[in-house]
């Protein structure tokens, strides 16, 4: 019921297939990773008590997970399963 309300019934697969551009995937990757990195830095700082260590962990994590998310998103954009 709730899921049906969230899904636009007027969109077909051909229209939706191209709606997720690579630039959109990059912007989504960056915004999500910034939020995730703030979380990682906060947790790392809490555990280690050292802000420099926390920032180092967060910096590495920011780059590596953005790259992984971009490719994950692009692969899923090509999978037909679950699309109408």
From TrEMBL:
This is DUF2061 domain-containing protein. InterPro entries: DUF2061_membrane (IPR018638). It comes from the Bacteria. Residues 26-77 form the DUF2061 domain. Pfam families: DUF2061. It comes from Tenacibaculum geojense.
């Amino acid at each position: 019921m709730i899921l049906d309300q969230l899904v636009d019934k007027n969109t077909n697969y051909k229209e939706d297939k191209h709606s997720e551009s690579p630039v959109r995937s990059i912007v989504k990757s960056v915004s999500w990773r910034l939020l995730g990195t703030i979380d990682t830095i906060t947790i790392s700082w809490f555990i280690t008590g050292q802000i420099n260590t926390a920032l180092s962990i967060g910096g590495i994590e920011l780059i590596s997970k953005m790259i992984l998310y971009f490719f994950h998103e692009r692969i899923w954009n090509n999978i037909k399963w679950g699309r109408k």
